[in-house]
Each structure stands twice: as structure tokens, then as C-alpha cells.
Amino acid sequence: MTDKRIRRIVIMGGGTAGWMTAAALSRALAGQGVAITLVESDAIGTIGVGEATIPTIHWFNQIIGLDERQFMAETQATVKLGIEFVGWNGEGSRYFHPFGTFGPPGDGAMFLHRLIRARADGDMAPTEAYSLTVQAARAGRFTLPVNDRRSLLSTLGYAYHFDAGLYARYLRVLAERGGVRRIEGVVASVQQDGESASVRSLTLDDGQVVAGDLFIDCSGLRALLIGQTLGVAFDDWSHWLPCDRAWAAPSAAESDRTPYTRATAAEAGWRWRIPLQHRVGNGYVFSSRFQDEEAARASLLAGMDGAPLAEPRLIRFIPGMRREAWRANVVAIGLSSGFLEPLESTSIHLIQSGIAKLLSLFPARDCSPLLARQFNRVFGQEMLDVRDFLILHYHATTGRDEPMWRERQKMAIPDTLAEKLAHFRSSGRIVLSSDELFRDASWFAVLDGQGERPGDHNPLVEVVGRDNNLHQLAALRAEIAKTATAMPPLP
């Protein structure tokens, strides 16, 4: 029988995407005789700044065998319990998107309808009071979630803030230990098969030729293989997501760590604040149609809590995605497959999601178009789902009258998002597919936080009488507050 297995994998580009891919593939293919080569150049920078993640990062860290304590020390990581949104409903407004769920353990989406009903019955307790994760974040406390579904601690969720450059360096050590070979060099040309257009090899600027059976494009926004070589078209989403620039700068570490990311609405975009062990990452994502670069730079500096430790760095991008992330024998992972601003900290997730889908659809040497179509379908849908969630933040904003925000409030939105909004406004239901990344608690946090109010609730909650419902919710608030207070302080 002819051996049709892939024997040579070439990863084009390092950074977070490249070394995450290298670490995962070296682990998954250990002992199978597959040569994995990563080509990168120290002369070509990466976007990596202080990164905020979402809880799916635990899955990736587990499959590559990371020890949490060592990982956090090596990457200067801190615990992240969610995102605080400041000013999205006007100056002084704030709400919290927590990791974890609202309500008691096991109540799920139905609890949100109990809460909606209670408000109609006069209960004006803040939404945050029903989230153990938010109460812990506000109090600066933390403990690991438990698996016992009867415990309130099972409703907790957490992720990390970490230094993306240190994370890539840490993963590089693991990947090279697993047999990955790194080549320093800049790609001068790409050789393709004349019939299939598949990539056969890369020629570096020193003349070295790197051949492969499968190529992973981790070249970032350049999209050297998937875009420049194979010519896969890019869908521009800037008519919905107008921000196309970001200034980034570090500042000194805070004495008392904040266990959440902060996203503050500004005149032409929003500012991020990400606390790490050794510094705070700051940035301003903005639209160049509404603010020039120098004014945006000044806005970033004015909004920082402390002086910058380095000159602000400008990043330019176009929001959108490649119409195919997998074509022929090239799979795009990370920014080469598309860019979505880090408003909900999805950049790292989309890297690991692409890796997971590649592992589940790992091809033979012929790189079957059937596998590519399936990959493109499921990964493309995930990008669309995240896109809609980000658009919601802009479209549902109230209380801001700057030109960019007025345009966002009036813009036509995708039909898929309009359908979700119609359901929620009509009956309080959050209608999601089983594969969507952000679940009921996340959608409710943003919808509720930005002032969307449903006109009704699921009638099944009527089985709990009005007074009984209000009494149970009051008892739940007290239990959440007590449990949060009993947690140890942040390490």
C-alpha cells in the first residue's frame, strides 16, 4: 500500500499563532515520523502585545501539557474573570461581562427568564448581584471552579492575561523539545505545483529551500501564502466594524492587580487595559475615518493610569476574513485567516480553534478538497458568529453622540444579528446554535449591560409564583455575596 501520509509540515511565521501551532502539532503527531519546520525571521515583528484570553484557553493549555503554575510564571500571567465595559452607554456607565454563568448552579438559560420576570415584578437588584464571578472580580478574590454541579463555585469561570511574546517564547521551548525545527530567514519566493497550485516549497533570502507536504500560514496580516500566493479573497467588514487602527503602549504594573480586562468607549473607538504581573498593557482601537493617528495617540496617553514605559506602537488592520482559510495544501491560522478586533479577547481563541479544526480534519498528502470545504465552513461560521457579537457592542450603544457612535447606532446590521435581537426584544430568548462560542450568559451580559430590555419572558417560569421567585432570588444574592467574601484574595 502506498504511504499517503503527510511527512513534512512547514509553518510559515512564528509569533503566537506559529508557536501555538507548532506546539500542538508536535504533541499530536509525536512518534509518527512527521518533520515539522517553522520558518520565521527576527527582522519581521509580530503584533503581539499584552493578551487577554477567554476560558477556552484551558483546553489548549491542557492538550499541549502545560503546568498552570509554571505557565503563569513564565508568561507573567494574571487571572482574568471577565471584561468590564466602561462608557458604552455614556460617561459614567459601566457593566461587566463575566466568565461563568449567572444564577445558581444548573439553572442555565432559564434563570435569565426568572430574572427578567422578577424585574417586571419590581426587583431592581443589579444584574451583577447574580454572578459569583463578578462579585469575586469586584472584591479582588479568586478560587478555582469546582466540578460539583451542586456547588455555587461551579458557576465560576476564568481565563488569563499574559504577555503574548513570552507565551510564544515559552511555547517555542516546548515545540523544539518536541522535535520542531526552527529556521531563521525571510521568504524570498514560493514555489507551486503547476497543475494544482499547491505550495511545494519556500525559498529563503539566503537561497535555502524548505519543502513540505502541508503548509500552515501564520504570517499574520501579510497572509503570505493564503493571500499573496494563492490569491484567496478577503471580505472587508469595516462597514460594520469601523476601527482600523490601534495604538499600544505599556505602563507600570499596578500594586493591587485587577482580575479583569477593561474596555472603555472613547470618541472614535475604545481603549483596552490589561493588567499583567510585570506591567499593564494599554491600547486604543480607533477608526481613522473619524480620528487621525496623532489625535488618537494623544487620546491613548490621556486615558492611561500611568506614564508609558515605551513609545506607543501603531498597528494598522482591516477587519474581515479570508473567504477560505484552507485552500489546496495551505491552512491559514491566526491573523492570516482574518482579523477581528480584540473587544471580546477572541484572537487567541481563534488561533486555537483553527488548530483544533485542523487536528480533527488532519489530511493525507492529497489534502482532500472535502476536508478543506468542511474546515472553511465551520471556521467561517465561527468567525461570522464572533463578528455579530462584536457588532452588537457597537450597534446597541446608547448615550454617546460622537459621529462614529451615531453612525454605528443607525447602521444596517447583518440579518443573523437582527434575528437574535428580535427574539430577545420580543420574548427574552437568546437563540443560539449549538456551536456558537459565546453562550447565553455572554449575550445576556452585553444585551442587558447596553440597555436592551425584553418585552416578555419564557412562560414556563410561571410555575414559580411571583413571591416565591422574588424570595429565591433574594436568597441567591445573599448566598453569592457570602461565597464571594469567603474566597481567598487574589494571589
TrEMBL record:
Is Flavoprotein one of the keywords UniProt gives this record?
A: yes
What would be an example GO MF term here? nucleotide binding
Q: Which controlled-vocabulary keywords does the entry list?
A: FAD, Flavoprotein, Nucleotide-binding
Organism this protein belongs to = Sphingomonas yabuuchiae
The UniProt annotation places L-tryptophan binding at E344
Positions of the catalytic residues = K80
- Its name, as the record gives it, is Tryptophan halogenase
Q: Name one Pfam family in it.
A: Trp_halogenase
User: For 7-chloro-L-tryptophan, which residues are the binding ones?
Assistant: K80
- Transmembrane stretches in the record are none
Residues reported in the UniProt entry to bind FAD: G14, G15, T16, A17, V187, L335, I348
Tell me the domain of life: Bacteria
The yes or no answer to whether the keyword Cell division is present is: no
